[in-house]
Amino acid sequence: MQDKLEKPTLVYDGGCFLCRLWVERARQFAGDSVCFLPSSHPGLRERFPQIPADHYEKAVQWVDANGRSWSGAAAIGQMLAYSGHPVWRMAEWFRQHVPMAGFLADWCYQIVARNRRFLSLATRFTRGSRTLYPGISVTSWWFLRILGLIFLVAFLSWGRQVQGLVGSQGILPVADFLHSINAQCDATGIHWERYWLVPTLNWFGTGDGWLSGQCAAGAAAALMVVLDMAPALFLFLCWLLYLSLATSGQDFMGFQWDNLLLETGFLSIFLAPLRWLPRLPGPTQPPGAALWLLRFLLFKLTFSSGCVKWLSNDPNWHHLTALQYHYQTQPLPTWLAWYANLLPENLQKASCLGVFLVEWFCPFLIFAPRYFRFAGALAMAGLQGLILLTGNYTFFNYLTLALCLLLLDDGAWPGCLTKLPHRIIPPWQKTFGFVNTSSPSGPPPIRRWPRWVIYPLALVIGMTSASQVVEVLGGSGLVPPPITQLAAEIAPLRTINSYGLFAVMTTQRFEISVEGSNDGTEWQAYEFKAKPGDLNRAPGFVAPGQPRLDWQMWFAALGTADQNPWFIQFCNRLLEGSKPVTNLLRHNPFASAPPRYIRAQLYLYRFTTQKERQATGNWWHRDLAGTYLPPIERARP
């Protein structure tokens, strides 16, 4: 009878790269509880006499502590079940007790075993020669630092504009907004549900100081994320405060990148380690479920954006002519867009085709082997870089680039960037003993989110996100009603969202010129900070900040004044001489006293040609298209 072994043993083909690769992965969850031996190890025949020598070349062998042996798919099943993970135990139970499952497992194993030399070459080609997975701890560390910076910019940008946009003297005061919500809820019999439907901390107060305080608190929390101080806690505070501000921001914070920041911030809470202070050994491996939720978010964002362009049936996308209009009709172009607009027609069409290729096919590389995933990350990041150079889309491009980083592993980083996170430990922590570098056992392990939290969350978010992709593709009828109901219930949190940018291409650029007068005859124009106005002023770079009034002016020009009540309120604030509102402008021609009349003219703008710019120096040409808002008069006391 075979003597008992100290621990179970797995014997594998040591000359096969594919075998070595999977053995290294098995070591990560089996640890020292399993002995792994290559088939070339001396003394195998004496150690396991019950296994014929030729069996080692045919299949992997598993010998348990009692000396019983299994071969092939059965050996792998036994090893996985021995790991104790309930999923693997269930899989092994199915292999043993369900005939078809056992047959398929053996059949698949035989195919892999017979072709393992070819598969080893293919694996080397697609993921490199590493047998040990490099991990993604450093990548996640850099991602969280970048996300903290993006949150910091978002809070500071909104904080500079919050008083003029939604303050007590702003265009859409928060107090009026919540009063209207209360009136509607009282009329319809809604009580406590109003706080879920309109999730904002401004239910506790609507004063200007309270609004600015939320922006300051959000910026402080974002700075703590950058410094790696209690990242999970402060990411939650960033998400909570930004949700509060976005909900009360009304028309000015209803953009897809606001939703994207909220969704990314919420998912990143579970990517972050559960610790209070930065400590050695530095970055830690994040939960796989949280990582893949963020990767699927990138897939959803990119793939949905490509699908809506085609499914909108816009002829400009179908005929690949959309980019011939995009550069000069986008909300806030940069001066590089003027040059991009001069590119030849064929190159514009080729670029448009490239957009479709990147947005349709590269998202699927997220789920491909390592090198293909790297290529997909490079292509999607390249597209975002080109968009960033020619247009001001606030922090959207930077946030998407950060998501692309999560497609890389630690082996893709230069050595200096891999070592840097391990060295960024504040000196005061060593002084006061918060970092234990002298203990022979090393510092205590960094806690991660438990599986009982991560897995149910991943299931809910994964199903809801997948249903949103199905709906974008026109398969809303395929989504089970419970998932549709769940998505509707959590929609107020703006944390699981649908995306789709530039579904229909705007072919003409209309701009609203707001003008004031004291006599109704001589009119002077207000100049905005970023949107086109002065024909001689070059389009600038304002991202990652966002002048939200300028953005709303672009949307207002697509409709009428009656369709944009906020614009009427904006003009009324100018007639009142509201300081917070006029601070949102580049130039106020009535700085000493507000005008008596306000009107808005509608102009058709286009980029100048090369000859026109050489002759006039202007970046823009405009023609009067009509009156957007007839003159309105300041109310007399």
Structure characterization notes:
With 637 residues, the chain is α+β, with helices and mostly antiparallel strands. The protein has three domains: 9-127, no CATH class; 137-419, no CATH class; 509-633, no CATH class. It is 53% helix and 9% strand. The chain has 28 helices and ten strands. The strands form three sheets. The chain has a four-stranded mixed β-sheet with strand order 2-1-3-4. Strand 3 and strand 4 form a beta hairpin. The protein is elongated. It starts with 8 loop residues before the first strand and ends with a strand. Mean pLDDT is 88; it is low at 430-443.
Describe the secondary structure blueprint for this structure.
Layout: E1 9-12, H1 17-30, E2 35-38, H2 44-47, H3 55-58, E3 61-63, E4 69-71, H4 73-82, H5 86-97, H6 99-114, H7 116-127, H8 137-166, H9 174-188, H10 194-197, H11 208-226, H12 231-248, H13 256-269, H14 288-311, H15 315-318, H16 323-329, H17 335-340, H18 345-361, H19 370-390, H20 396-405, H21 415-423, H22 427-431, H23 451-472, H24 481-490, E5 509-517, E6 524-525, E7 527-528, H25 548-556, H26 565-576, H27 579-582, E8 585-587, E9 597-607, H28 610-616, E10 620-633
Parallel strand pairs: 1-2
Antiparallel strand pairs: 1-3, 3-4, 5-6, 5-9, 7-8, 9-10
Helix pairs in contact: 4-5, 5-6, 8-11, 8-12, 8-20, 11-12, 12-13, 13-14, 14-18, 14-23, 19-20
